[in-house]
Design the sequence.
């Protein structure tokens, strides 16, 4: 593979979160954890809450990526994220509290519990906490 | 001719109004700047979203999908985005007109989801079927609000309650030009006849998960982002429209004041002349 890096764009409704060259991007999708290298075949994936790793030439960056979808093309990736946060934007106390709430809801499940929602909330909280570590 | 005192009173009342309109103009200028930078920052997301969804739809070709064909119901849901406050020129009535003067729509077929109290009031007065409305959204549009609304609409769409979803709002082109726009959200219109501009054998888009499932997940995000984009643009347009309206009002007030000053001076001069003539005539009579 001739190309060593590709263009990565991460866009949220409020701002352009990241724009630059990366060598590899890793994130979590509905089909599992993926790592994308330059020259990938065109692919659209749906994002699940998880940690986003951006491998740049100089080092690695992490962020918590919660929802959205990604369009992967050979020359670059565009991630349309509904929610994505750098580690310094995360409030650890709140994430911890959210995790406990979600776990509590899953433990004491009643017929009315929206399990899918509670699970997503739990995944989100876990992603936030992991990024901080 | 009006008396000097009447003219003076009228002039000072117009001056008071002018001060208010001037202040309102300044306030909306500041708000416009903030709203505009918001709109511009989020614009890239919507452009990207729009392009992505269009390119996905083009690549998958014509597949049977619930979001791509109109529902069976005749009902059309229209999200009408207006402001909560008036004094913005034709801003609100232009959006309302999009709905009331639409050549093909019948009042009975429409379900209105108003955002902004002005549009709600106007359409309720005309006897439209109004659904829940959340006017507070307009003060500070947030993505979660758009998400909640999109979710409710998609649910009614999926249940067959409504067949089509439209969005009426004011697009923000630039500070002085705001265009009332009507947009069809669902079913998504595939621009069928449009030839693929890049003939080079473009690789076929793959989906993970399968395309139908992927569309199930992407379309709600698409609808949400369009609603949010419309909200943000509408706020910018509202402030732009108000700024223009207040600017016009201020300059009108200025014209009226200069007109009244002229009249006042003429009346003053007239009264002095009259007094003089009276004195002279009195002196002559005595002499």
Sequence:
């Amino acid at each position: 593979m001739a190309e060593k890096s590709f263009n990565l764009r991460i866009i949220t409704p409020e701002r352009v979160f990241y724009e630059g060259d990366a060598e590899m991007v890793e994130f979590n999708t509905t089909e599992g954890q993926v790592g994308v290298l330059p020259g990938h075949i065109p692919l659209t994936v749906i994002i699940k809450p998880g940690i986003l790793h951006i491998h740049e030439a100089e080092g690695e960056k992490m962020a918590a990526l919660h929802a959205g979808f990604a369009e992967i093309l050979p020359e670059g990736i565009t991630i349309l994220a509904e929610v994505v946060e750098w580690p310094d934007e995360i409030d650890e106390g709140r994430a911890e509290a959210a995790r406990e709430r979600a776990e509590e809801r899953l433990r004491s499940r009643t017929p009315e519990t929206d399990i899918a929602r509670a699970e997503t909330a739990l995944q989100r909280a876990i992603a936030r906490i992991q990024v901080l570590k | 001719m009006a008396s000097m005192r009447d003219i003076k009173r009228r002039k000072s009342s117009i001056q008071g109004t002018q001060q208010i309109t001037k202040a309102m103009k300044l306030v909306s200028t500041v708000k416009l700047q903030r709203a505009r930078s918001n709109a511009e920052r989020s614009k890239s997301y919507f452009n990207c979203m729009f392009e992505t969804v269009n390119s996905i739809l083009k690549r998958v070709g014509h597949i049977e999908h619930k979001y791509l064909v109109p529902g069976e119901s005749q009902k059309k849901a229209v999200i009408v985005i207006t402001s909560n406050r008036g004094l913005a020129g034709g801003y609100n009535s232009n959006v309302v007109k999009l709905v009331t003067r639409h050549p093909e729509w019948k009042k009975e077929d429409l379900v209105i989801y108003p955002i902004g109290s002005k549009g709600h009031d106007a359409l309720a007065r005309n006897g439209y079927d109004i659904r829940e409305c959340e006017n507070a959204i307009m003060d500070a549009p947030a993505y979660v609000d758009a998400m909640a609304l999109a979710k409710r609409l998609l649910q009614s769409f999926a249940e067959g309650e409504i067949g089509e979803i439209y969005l009426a709002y004011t697009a923000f082109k630039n500070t002085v030009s705001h265009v009332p726009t009507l947009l069809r959200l669902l079913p998504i219109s595939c621009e069928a006849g449009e030839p693929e501009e890049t003939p080079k054998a473009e690789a076929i888009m793959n989906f993970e998960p399968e395309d139908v499932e992927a569309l199930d997940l992407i379309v709600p995000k698409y609808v949400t982002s369009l609603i949010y984009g419309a909200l943000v643009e509408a706020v910018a347009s509202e402030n732009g429209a108000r700024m223009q309206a207040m600017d016009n009002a201020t300059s009108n007030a200025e014209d009226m004041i200069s007109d009244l000053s002229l009249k006042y001076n003429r009346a003053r001069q007239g009264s002095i002349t009259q007094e003089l003539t009276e004195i002279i005539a009195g002196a002559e009579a005595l002499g």
User: Anything to note?
Assistant: Chain B is about 60% helix and 15% strand. Strands of chain B lie at 76-81, 110-115, 129-130, 164-174, 177-186, 206-208. Residues 76 and 164 of chain B are 5 Å apart (CA to CA). The first strand of chain B starts at residue 76 and ends at 81.
